[in-house]
Every structure is written in C-alpha cells, then in structure tokens.
Amino acid sequence: MKKLTMLLTIFLSIFIVAPSVVFAGDYTLTIDGPHMVAESAGTVTFTVSIDRAVDAGDGNVFFDYWTIEGTAEAASDFTAVSANHSWNEGEGADKLISVNILPDSLVEDFESFTVVLMNAVVQNGGTVSFSPPNGNTGTCNINI
Fold first, then answer.
1. Where are the domains of the chain?
2. Of 14, 30, 66, 80, which sits most exposed with the smallest number of CB within 10 A?
3. What are the distances in angstroms from CA 58 to CA 43, 90, 116, 127, 129?
4. Residue 116: exposed, middle, or buried by beta-carbon count in 10 A (0-12, 13-18, 19+)?
C-alpha cells in the first residue's frame, strides 16, 4: 500500500505540474530594432533576444541572419550582412546585429531593408520558435 501511495503521489505531482513546465530545449527568439533612422545615422543595430538562458545539457542555440533589400539597395544604401550568432549553455544575453547605413547625395523617398533570422537550432535537440509567430524579421526604414 505504501508503494502505491508513493506512485500515486508522484503521478499526481507530475500531472499537476506538467502543464506549466517549459520543456528543456524549447526556446523563443525575438528581434527588435529601430523602425526608422536617418541616413546620417551611420549604423543601425537590431537586438535579438532569447527567452531564457540556455539550459545545461542543451549545447548551444544557433541562428543565422542576413539582410534583404527592400527599396534600399545593398552597397548603395546599406552594407549587406550575413553571419550567425549563438548562445552557449548558461548564456542568455541579447545578441546584436549591426548594419552600416551608407549616405549618398541623392534625394529619395523613405527606403527600407530587412534583417531575417533563419535556421535557428538547439545543438542537442529541442525547438526554437519566433515571437510573435513569423516574427523572424526586423525591418528598418531609412529617412533620406
């Protein structure tokens, strides 16, 4: 009877607690940055945040990023970037993505480019999602 009571107690504890548990290896990333900068700003910085420090045993959490032209053109309005970042186990500090803005003497309307996050993975398994859903982009308008 004692064994059955213990098993029932453990089962009920797991059942009651489980719905509120964040499973190891499941992470959420968000990207934020200025929505508008002056062409004279020189650099625009986007911030990528992870919802918590990487759990021990998960390995690193990786993501790739790159810029995509909109109405702003790479090499004439901004310097294209393409690279990756990662968080090590125990780390949860924001990662920064900097994009150089290239001034010119042309009179133009607002121009924009986008920074995209892709290929986010947990080294030892698990999932990475973006918040909000499909929130893996940050767009910046350049005020000329």
1. 31-143
2. 14
3. 34, 10, 24, 11, 16
4. middle
> Position of tokens 């059942």?
15
Look up residue 17 and give its two tokens: 């607690």
Are 121 and 61 spatial neighbours (Cβ–Cβ below 8 Å)? yes
Residue 77 CA to its chain's centroid (Å): 24
Residue 3: per-residue pLDDT: 43
In the predicted model, what is the mean pLDDT of residues 19-26? Answer: 53
Please identify, in words, the CATH class of the domain defined by 31-143.
mainly beta
Q: Are 64 and 83 in contact (CB under 8 A)?
A: yes
Structure tokens of 93? 């500090």
**Distance, CA of 31 to CA of 138 (rounded, Å):** 6
Q: What is the DSSP letter of 70?
A: S
100: pLDDT strictly greater than 60: yes
